[in-house]
Amino acid sequence: MGYYLGIDGGGTKTEALVTDEKGVVVSALKGDASNPHFAGKDTALSNLRCIIMLAIKDIDKKNIRKVILCVPGIKEYRHELNKMISIDEDRTVFYGDELNTFVGALARDYGVTVLAGTGSFVIGMDKTGRKCTIGGWGPIIGDPGSGYWMAVQALRAVAMEYDGLLEHTILTDRIKEYYSIENINNLKRVVSMNNISPIAALVKEAAQEEDRQAISIVQEAAQRLAEMAGIVIDRLGLDNKDYSLALTGGISNFGELIMRPFIDTLRQKYRNIDIVKPLFTPVVGAVMLAMREDDIGWDEDILNNLKISYGKAGITNVNRPVF
User: Fold this and answer.
1) Domain that residue 221 falls in
2) Could you tell me if 92 and 112 lie in one domain?
3) What's the pLDDT at 193?
4) Residues with Cβ < 8 Å from 85, sequence gap 6 or more?
5) Is the same domain home to 69 and 177?
6) How many domains does the chain have?
7) Residues 122 and 199 in one domain
8) Do both 83 and 30 map to the same domain?
9) Which is higher by pLDDT, 82 or 191?
């Protein structure tokens, strides 16, 4: 029996999934960040080694057919990582996080996928294979509509409230608690690139409590994401019922808070493209890519096995390296 390992990693978390050649899930794990631009090289490699070794601990390595790592920024360290996990380089393939997100959401090779996680991007493909990708510039240049973007907007909002330039927001108290500070002025000494992303969850909570500033941030994020999607739709001519569009990633878990303004903005111009819920998460997409690298197609049986077994799989949380 052959096995396939897919890794989806980012600036907030890393997920690992192992399936057999029929698409039945063997193990599913979630751990800490593995994007070196957020976590740093050493931490990223350590977290990846930890989650990989735990994911395959009950499998003979010679039976692992393909490993797909969909982690932005990690490819340049591929030789080090291969030595750390002791798996042949010819069985290990490195991607960014675009293609696994795309195939996971749509389980096909055409359509549009909008990813809003720690970062954001939109990828589209038509039936002839033409491809368009926009976004994915990272936290410094900017990923509109992403969790990191929302967190930065929240920090700006509380700073503006402190300066008397904006009305009160409950984000102020939430962010003071998050950073364990008594005064917002102390943000200057505690904020760094590697501790901003979790603030997106505080934005969600505040929006659910009808905080005006938080709602405004979420609505603007939805509009930014829809605008990016529109550019891809226009460039590839995808506004017809033959194509589907899915919003995926952690920010999609905001539910109607994000989906309603996102859909409303899209429908102002694009009436025909089918807006759907993502079929699978990006980590399932990574496993699907691993299968395709081994010339296994995604037939109906495999997709059904993935859907059923992943839905039943218990996800093990990995919080620190143990090897």
Assistant:
1) 108-278
2) no
3) 83
4) 48, 49, 52, 53, 67
5) no
6) 2
7) yes
8) yes
9) 191
CB 153 within 8 A of CB 144: no
Structure tokens given for 231? 């550019």
Examine residue 239 and state whether it is found in any structural domain, yes or no: yes
CA 61-75-285 angle, 5° bins: 65
175 burial via Cβ count (<10 Å: 0-12, 13-18, 19+): buried
Q: Specify the CATH number for the domain of residue 40.
A: 3.30.420.40
State the pLDDT at residue 82: 87
Answer yes or no: is pLDDT of 323 > 60. Answer: no
Tell the residue number behind the tokens 């501790």, with chain if given: 195
Ramachandran sector of residue 253 (left: φ over 0; alpha: ψ -120 to 50; beta: rest)? alpha
Q: What is the mean pLDDT of residues 1-18?
A: 92
| Mean pLDDT, rounded, for 246-264 | 95
pLDDT at 16 over 80: yes
225 shares a domain with 199: yes
- For 8, 68, 117, 216, 264, the CA distances from 249, given in Å and listed in that order, are 11, 19, 5, 20, 19
Residues 49 and 84: their CA atoms lie apart, in Å, by 7
Question: What is the per-residue pLDDT for 314?
Answer: 80
Tell me how far apart the terminal alpha carbons of the chain are, to the nearest angstrom. 26
pLDDT at 321 exceeding the cut of 70: no
Within this chain, do residues 137 and 158 fall inside the same structural domain, yes or no?
A: yes
* Contact criterion met (CB below 8 Å) for 9 and 43: no
Q: Is residue 165 part of a domain?
A: yes
If asked whether residues 157 and 246 sit together in one domain, one would say yes
Q: What is the model's pLDDT at position 319?
A: 66
Q: Does 323 reside within a domain?
A: no
What is the rounded distance in angstroms from the CA atom of residue 201 to the CA atom of residue 183?
Answer: 21
Residue 95 and residue 190 share a domain:
no
Name residues whose C-beta falls within 8 Å of residue 234's C-beta, 6 or more positions apart in sequence.
none
The rounded mean pLDDT for the chain is: 93
Supply 45's token pair: 């490699």
Residue 322 within any structural domain of the chain: no
Q: What tens digit of pLDDT does each residue of 183-199 get?
A: 999 999 999 988 998 99
